[in-house]
Hints:
Elements: H1 26-29, H2 31-45
Amino acid sequence: MHYRRTDIAGGTYFFTVNLAERRRTLLVDHADMLRTGNMAAGRLGKGTK
């Protein structure tokens, strides 16, 4: 697959995460960890620490 990504300052990306077992609450229970990991990955992608 080829994804197009534009590098626009202040731009926003949206993505969807779900589990194979849809009734599990794992993602909701640990939303803060997902948010922190996503922000850290974004910083790494920009070459900052």
